[in-house]
C-alpha cells in the first residue's frame, strides 16, 4: 500500500497508475464508508482511499486507523488530500484527480462536502454516488466513546491501530524542567480523548528512533486545554518541531496539585509505573 500526502500549494508532481477513488468522510468512518469500500471491491479496479482534509483539528478515526482499514481491504493507495487553510470555496481545485492521480472512476457519499466541485472536474459519468443513511451502530461512534472513556485497548480493537496524531512543539512555562521533568508542549485545544495521563510513543522528524514517554492532557489555568509529553531518556531542544504521538494506555485521571514538590513526587511515581509497563 502506498501512502501519499498531497497539498496543491506544494506543486508536487505525481503520475500514478489509474485506480478507482473511494471518497468518504474517513475520519468519521461509518456504515456509509463501509458501503463505499464494498462497492469499490465489486469492481475489477485497483482502489485508492482519498481522505480530504481541510483543517488540523484532531479526528476520532486517526491516520493509522485509516491505513489499517486500507491494508485489511487490500487497497492500493491512501491519499491525504489537503485543502489549504482559508481557501475560498470557488478556488477548490481537484484537477489533479485527472492530471496526476488518473482516477478512472470515483465512488463518493452523497453528502460529501466536495461532491459538486469533484463532479465539475470529473464529469457525472465518472461519479458513482452512494446514497445511504448513517446508523448509530458504526465505527465512529464506538471509537469516539472509547476515546472519551480512555479505553485505548477498545479503540485499538475497533479501529485496528492505536490513536495517533502530530503537532508542533511550542514554548510552555517550563515548570517541568524545574523539577527534572521537561515536557514538549503542544497547544492543541479540545482533543477527542479523555483528559489524564497516558503512556505514549513519540517519533521525531528525521529520527528513526521510537521514544517512550508519559503524556498529560489537562486544562491549564492560564493557557486552557493543553497536551504535553515528557520523553524518557531525552533532553534536546525540539521547539518548533512537528512530532508524532501514539497513545498506548490511559494511566490515571488528573488530580489537583498544591505545590511543585507534590508534582515531582507524583510524576516520579507515574514514570516508575509506566516504565514497568514498557518492560
TrEMBL record:
Entry annotated with the keyword Kinase: yes
GO molecular function: ATP binding; riboflavin kinase activity
Catalytic activity: riboflavin + ATP = FMN + ADP + H(+)
InterPro entries the UniProt entry points to: Riboflavin_kinase (IPR023468), Riboflavin_kinase_bac/euk (IPR015865), Riboflavin_kinase_dom_sf (IPR023465)
Domain Riboflavin kinase: 158-279
Keywords: ATP-binding, Flavoprotein, FMN, Kinase, Nucleotide-binding, Transferase
GO biological process, alphabetically ordered: FMN biosynthetic process; riboflavin biosynthetic process
Origin superkingdom: Bacteria
Listed EC numbers: 2.7.1.26
Principal EC category: transferase
Name of the protein in its database record: riboflavin kinase
Amino acid at each position: 500500500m502506498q501512502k501519499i500526502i498531497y497539498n496543491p500549494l506544494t506543486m508536487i508532481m505525481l503520475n500514478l497508475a489509474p485506480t478507482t477513488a473511494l471518497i468518504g468522510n474517513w475520519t468519521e468512518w461509518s456504515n456509509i464508508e463501509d458501503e463505499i469500500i464494498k462497492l469499490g471491491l465489486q469492481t475489477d479496479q485497483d482502489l485508492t482511499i482519498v481522505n480530504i482534509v481541510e483543517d488540523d483539528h484532531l479526528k476520532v478515526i486517526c491516520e493509522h486507523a485509516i491505513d489499517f482499514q486500507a491494508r485489511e481491504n487490500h487497497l492500493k493507495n491512501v491519499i491525504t488530500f489537503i485543502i489549504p487553510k482559508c481557501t475560498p470555496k470557488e478556488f477548490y481545485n481537484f484537477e489533479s484527480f485527472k492530471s496526476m492521480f488518473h482516477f478512472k472512476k470515483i465512488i463518493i457519499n452523497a453528502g460529501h462536502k466536495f461532491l459538486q466541485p469533484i463532479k465539475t472536474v470529473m464529469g457525472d459519468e465518472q461519479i458513482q454516488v452512494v446514497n445511504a443513511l448513517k446508523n448509530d451502530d458504526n465505527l465512529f461512534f464506538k471509537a469516539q466513546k472509547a476515546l472519551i472513556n480512555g479505553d485505548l485497548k477498545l479503540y485499538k480493537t475497533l479501529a485496528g491501530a492505536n490513536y495517533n496524531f502530530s503537532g508542533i512543539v511550542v514554548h510552555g512555562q517550563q515548570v517541568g524542567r524545574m523539577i527534572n521533568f521537561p515536557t514538549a508542549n503542544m497547544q492543541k485545544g479540545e482533543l477527542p480523548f479523555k483528559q489524564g495521563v497516558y503512556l505514549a510513543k513519540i517519533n521525531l522528524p528525521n529520527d528513526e528512533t521510537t521514544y517512550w514517554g508519559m503524556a498529560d492532557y489537562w486544562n491549564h489555568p492560564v493557557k486552557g486545554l493543553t497536551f504535553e509529553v515528557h520523553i524518557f531518556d531525552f533532553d534536546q531542544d525540539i521547539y518548533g518541531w512537528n512530532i508524532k504521538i501514539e497513545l498506548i494506555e490511559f494511566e490515571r485521571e488528573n488530580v489537583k496539585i498544591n505545590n511543585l514538590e507534590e508534582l515531582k513526587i507524583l510524576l516520579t511515581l507515574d514514570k516508575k509505573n509506566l516504565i514497568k509497563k514498557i518492560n
